[in-house]
Structure formats: structure tokens, C-alpha cells
Amino acid sequence: MNWTVYLSGEIHTDWRDQIIAGCEAHGLYLQFTSAVTDHEASDAAGDFLGPENSNYWRDHKSSKVNGIRTRNLIEKCDIAVIRFGDKYKQWNAAFDAGFCAAMGKPYITLHDDDIIHPLKEVDAAAMAWATSPDQVAQLLRYVVAA
Asked: Domain span at residue 109?
């Protein structure tokens, strides 16, 4: 079976690359997908539809354009990994987790233990919680190759 793994969340570190490298080191060649990780491009996703006089409406249009990609990729994935970093609040990642939960799509959360409490509901619906990209690669190895 060819597995597709959707990587959601924090965009300011190389955790995605670490998971991909870890899976390749385990001999797993999975298909990885993700939301747009270029922050400026994501914020401007709807700009070509015309200017807005309010940041709210600019963000609203861009979130809808980004949602086309996000919804399709989550629906098509076999499992999602949802990363919550420590520097910024990833509300979009929490939304992706809720979308996965509502669809019955299995997901793994990836975050440090100092944000366990604010993520208790997100973690409760997850199939696993990892604290490092290496743990995610090991989880995927077990799930895919076992």
C-alpha cells in the first residue's frame, strides 16, 4: 500500500524535512503532502482576486483559497501529522486536527510537553502524541511496515 501523510502546522522549523529523512532512513518511501509553507504566499493566496480595504477580508479570501488545497489533501491522506510549535499559536493546525477528527482521519500530534494542557482536546482525539520528528518516523515505520 502506498501511504500518503499530510504534514500540518508550524512552518518556522524543519520538522517536515526531519520526518521525511527519518522515514527514508527506515526504508519508508511515503508520499508527503502539506499546506503551503511560505507564510507570505499563504497570506497572499487570494490577492489576485482583487484588493480589499480590510485585512479581515484579505485574510478571509486567502483562507478560502488555501482551504481548497488543505481540504483536498487532508481528505486524500491516510494519516496526518499535526505539529504545534512553541513560538506561535497554530490555530490553523488545531482546525486541521478538528477536521481530521470530524472525518475519522487518524492523526498524530507533535509538540513539546509544555503545551499539553492547551492541547488536551486535540491530543485526546489523536491516535498518538510525539515529542520529536524521530518519534513520528518510528510511529510511521510501525504503522506502515508492521
From this structure: 4-36+75-145
Whether 97 contacts 122, CB under 8 Å:
yes
* Predicted TM-score of the model (pTM): 0.94
Burial class of residue 50 (count of CB atoms within 10 Å of its CB; 0-12, 13-18, 19+): exposed
| DSSP string for 75-119 | HH-SEEEEE--SSS--HHHHHHHHHHHHHT--EEEE--GGGTGGG
Q: What is the mean pLDDT of each run of 10 residues along the chain (146 residues)?
A: 93 95 94 95 95 95 96 97 86 94 97 94 97 98 89
Examine residue 45 and state whether it is found in any structural domain, yes or no: no
Total count of domains within the chain:
1
Task: For residues 57 and 78, give the distance between their C-alpha atoms in angstroms, rounded to a whole number.
Answer: 33
| Cell of residue 135, nine digits | 518519534
